[in-house]
Amino acid sequence: MKFTLFSAQLGLLIGLLSYVAQAQTLPVLPSPDFDVTHNATVTGLVEDNAGNPVPSVLVKLMKNASPSAYPVSYAITGVDGTYSITGIQGVDYFLAYEFPAAGYTAGSANPGVSFTAAASQTADDFVLDRIPETITSCNVTDYRQTNWDTNNDGSPFQVTKPVPVNGGANLTAVNVFTAAFVSHPTITATASTAGSTVQVLQVGGLVRINGNDVSQGVTANRTFIDWMEDDVYALNPNEELRYYSVSSGASGNSGFSGAIPPAYTDASTSLTYRIRGDGSKTISTSGGNTTSAETTYAQGGVCVTYTYDMNPLPVKLAVFTAAVTPERNVSLEWSSTEEINSSGFEVQRSANAKNWVTVGTVAATGNSRTVQHYRFLDTPTGAHTTAYYRLKMIDLDGTFAYSTLESVSLPRVTTAFVSPNPARGDVIRITLKGTSWQEVSEVSVFDISGRKVLQPGAFDNGKLNVSTLTPGLYQVRLVYADGSQQSLPTVIN
Questions:
Q1: Are the C-beta atoms of residues 285 and 198 closer than 8 Å to each other?
Q2: What is the DSSP string of 422-487?
Q3: CA-only gyration radius of the chain, Å
Q4: pTM score > 0.90 for this model?
């Protein structure tokens, strides 16, 4: 929402001018957090322990300060679980997260470790552990300029119902987590020719979420000036007070137990809420006239958590492990403590924890309340040196859930050799088997003392010009993209 306000002199506040002499510098906020456009960006991912993205998590960039840390910036995770949050280069921060605690516990440190902000950096993934008796489903709106929606009821917004896979599970409680994020690229307050004193300046927004017996207004505001805290700011004639890269955020909860509203238990597959975002501002001045302006953007999210009287997923895993054998196979072992109407397990492998292939299936016991043990032996193919595994646990009716991820480090199977060896002429050829040159980040030649004597800038299908080398014994060293190395003894005649 673009919002310009003209404030006339407020006679009731004239008596507060005695504070002006104490407040001739920028208020504690924004300086130094909002007196320049933020030039550091931190990106990250929030996912559960099965590798699924978790939208609608409120992320806070906290500044290390005395006597206590405080939030400088906010963000909300998108439908893919990612976020982007801004700060100032060279400043020490840490990240903190607000998430639907009815459905998850923090599997990663919350708050996180301190770091010094750079122009661009990626935070460690923040992992949430699912509480076994729950299923949580989330959705988040687009980030857009307020006001939306202009109709008083708000725009329809759907969240998929977290339906149990285990048909024997009984619903005992429902929790609705809501999050709001509001941002302003710039905020300005400009005095008239006579000057003025700003007594109150508060800017933010309100995200309203209604429907299915939920009515929440999540307010996200920042107070920059407040005479109640002995904090006012005197503007000289035509002086402008300007704030940059301002954001705020908040979260809320609603819960039901016992008599759960019918909307959460009927046969529909989704829950429809109505959501609306509005900008808000309070400014009071005395001793002159002041104009102020800002543009407000907002984003809102909802997570619905269903809690049951037993694990609502088809299999309750007690353990899942992966280990490399001497033959470069991977031994996968897992145990279940409870199975209800279980069909089987698909064993899935990935080289990047994103793209998965099924490498085998194992039949489940079906129904059991005693510990069941399973094992599967996989033979990874390809040149990758890290393999990720997960189990797809499938029920008899076709519904399924995923286990946590396990990873192993595999010995490289690449074969490389030099020909001719000993070299005859000015050029040798390096031949790769089991990988490609796209996987090689560097080729260097070292003499017998360990001194690097040649590092070509480009390769022609593995050809290496050695005409500058004197006769002797050398090592051709290959460095692969994953950091592993391979040395090839080579004789130059």
A1: yes
A2: SB-SSEEEEEEESS-GGGEEEEEEEETTS-EEE--S--BTTEEE-TTSPSEEEEEEEEETTS-EEE
A3: 30
A4: no
Q: Is 18 exposed, middle or buried (0-12, 13-18, 19+ CB in 10 A)?
A: exposed
Measured from the Cβ of residue 326, the count of other Cβ atoms closer than 10 Å reads: 6
Burial class (CB in 10 A: 0-12, 13-18, 19+), 289: middle
3-state secondary structure of 398: coil
Would you mind telling me the total number of residues written for the chain in this entry?
A: 493
pLDDT, one tens digit for every residue, the chain (493 residues): 333 333 332 222 222 222 232 333 334 444 578 888 999 999 999 998 777 899 999 999 999 887 889 999 999 999 999 999 999 999 999 999 999 999 999 989 999 999 999 999 999 999 999 888 899 999 999 888 888 766 666 778 899 988 766 666 788 999 999 999 899 888 888 888 788 888 888 888 888 888 899 888 888 888 888 776 567 888 888 888 888 898 889 999 999 988 899 999 998 989 999 888 888 888 888 888 888 888 899 899 999 999 998 777 667 777 899 999 888 889 999 998 778 778 899 999 988 888 899 999 999 988 887 788 999 999 887 656 788 999 998 888 777 778 888 999 887 666 788 889 998 888 888 888 777 777 788 888 999 888 898 888 666 678 888 888 889 999 988 887 767 778 888 998 8
**If we measure between CA atoms, which residue out of 230, 254, 207 comes closest to residue 21?**
230
Please tell me the distance from the alpha carbon of residue 96 to that of residue 276, in angstroms, as a whole number: 26
- The neighbouring-strand residues paired with 243 are 187
Reduce the secondary structure of 185-197 to three states and give it as a string: EEEEEEECCCCEE
